Amino acid sequence: MVLSTALFGKPAFRNLICNGLVLAEDGKKMSKSLKNYPSPLEVIDNYGADALRLYLINSPVVRAEPLRFKKEGVHGVVRDVFLPWYNAYRFLVQNAKRLEVEGLASFIPIDQATLQNSSNVLDQWINSATQSLVYLSAKRWMAIAFTRLAVNHVFQWILSSWNKFKIRTRETIECSRFLVLL
After folding, report:
1. Quick check: 34 and 42 in contact, CB under 8 A?
2. Are strands 22-23 and 67-68 parallel, antiparallel or unpaired?
3. How far, CA to CA in Å, does 149 sit from each of 14, 18, 57, 88, 116?
4. Residue 145: CB partners within 8 Å, gap ≥ 6?
5. Which of 39, 84, 122, 151 is the most exposed place for a label (fewest CB within 10 A)?
6. How confident is the model over 23-50, as pLDDT tens digits?
């Protein structure tokens, strides 16, 4: 930084991203000789790489603070984020298939143009909420606020949106055709 400023009159970079230390559960540095950490392959096999990635991106380590790594934290991500998301998706698929068995049309997601021209209040709400999410996400990316972007807004928005459609009606299936686009 000093050399860049002295030689060229400007800093070498505009933004800097620092990570904290990932410590063992007992707060000590992870060590192969002490074997005080869970096997990464075991964690990925048990919970999946996405759950591990989501646990780390939502942890203090992204804000350059130390993290005491716990397998229970990765399990919490699976329990609190992925299972509700999967259950909401399963709800949609089961109801779409049920309506097809009852003789209604096959489930086909609608396109963006149809959604924007829709007079359905729930379609308009979904479109508005999606545009708000896109705006907020872009704003966070530009501010390099990664930690709040990934988990707190995107996943919570998806889960709260699905929960609003858990009324077992044909309108639920109609509105869910747009959510599949996400």
Report:
1. no
2. parallel
3. 20, 17, 10, 22, 26
4. none
5. 39
6. 999 989 998 898 899 999 999 999 999 9
**N- to C-terminal Cα distance for the chain?**
42
b or e along 77-114 (b: 16 or more beta carbons within 10 Å of the residue's beta carbon)? bbeebbeeeeebeebbeebbeebeeeeeeebeebeeee
CA distances from 94 to 21, 70, 72, 88, 102 (A): 44, 35, 31, 10, 12
Dist CA 54 CA 59 (whole Å): 9
| DSSP reduced 3-state for 29 | strand
String of b and e for 53-68 (b: at least 16 CB within 10 Å)? Answer: ebbbebbebbeeeebb
* Whole-number Å distance between alpha carbons of 82 and 59: 17
What pTM was estimated for this model as a whole?
Answer: 0.65
